[in-house]
Structures are given as structure tokens and as C-alpha cells.
């Protein structure tokens, strides 16, 4: 068996600090109904309103997912995010949670 084939089955060892983030991402994606709502909007290249509606749904779902992740990890910061809607302030947190995996 080649190294590439084995890599598909060998588990990745996460550090103690990374494990809560993995559980968080798994839980958030398990309860997300993002694809149900986005895939339900038909795509018609001749109708830009439908494309705009699809984009709007995608952005709302992404904001809800990111807000939920922050609230679950840091309640006070999450509440502040829900008030201000300034996601850029927390980009380092989101990058650490989402991009390190």
C-alpha cells in the first residue's frame, strides 16, 4: 500500500487545544441547513434577481454559522458580534478555528 493510500485511513493527531475546535466545526456543520436553502433556489442565467437571491441566502447562512461559532466559544464576544455585525474584528479567531484544520 502506498503512502498516499495509507494517508486516507490514518487518523490525524490533534493537539489538546485543537480538539474543541474540531468538535465545534463538526457540530456547526451537522446542524447547518445551508445547502438545503441554497440548493433550493433555481439558477436562471437570464434572471439576475434569482442569482441575487441565492447570493443573499448564502451570505445570511454564512453569517449565522460564523456568529454561532463565536457565541459558542466566547459568549460576550458573540453577543457583541451580533450587535455590530463586524466580522472583520474576529478574523483571527475565525482563521484559527476554520483554517488550521
Description:
The mean pLDDT is 79. This protein has helices spanning 3-7, 19-31, 34-39, 48-73, 75-84, 91-98. Helix content is 67%, strand content 0%. The chain has 101 residues and is mainly alpha-helical. The chain is flat. The relative contact order is 0.12.
Give a short summary of the structure.
This protein is mainly α and about 100 residues long.
Percent of residues in helices comes to: 55-70%
Distance between the termini: 26 Å
Overall average residue pLDDT: 79
Helix-strand sequence: HHHHHH
Low-confidence stretches: none
Shape descriptor: flat
Number of helices in the DSSP assignment: 6
The strand count comes to 0
Largest sheet: none
Class inferred from helices and paired strands: mainly alpha
Radius of gyration over alpha carbons?
18 Å
User: Strand-residue fraction?
Assistant: under 5%
Topology:
Elements: H1 3-7, H2 19-31, H3 34-39, H4 48-73, H5 75-84, H6 91-98
Spell out the key features of this protein:
101 residues; mainly alpha; 6 helices; 67% helix
Amino acid at each position: 500500500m502506498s503512502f498516499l493510500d495509507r494517508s486516507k485511513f490514518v487518523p490525524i493527531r490533534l493537539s489538546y487545544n485543537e480538539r474543541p475546535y474540531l468538535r465545534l466545526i463538526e457540530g456547526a456543520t451537522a446542524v447547518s441547513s445551508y445547502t438545503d436553502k441554497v440548493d433550493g433556489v433555481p439558477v436562471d442565467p437570464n434572471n439576475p434577481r434569482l442569482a441575487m437571491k441565492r447570493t443573499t441566502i448564502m451570505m445570511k447562512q454564512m453569517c449565522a454559522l460564523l456568529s454561532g461559532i463565536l457565541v459558542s466559544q466566547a459568549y460576550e464576544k458573540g453577543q457583541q458580534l451580533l450587535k455590530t455585525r463586524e466580522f472583520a474584528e474576529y478574523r483571527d479567531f475565525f482563521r484559527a478555528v476554520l483554517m488550521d484544520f
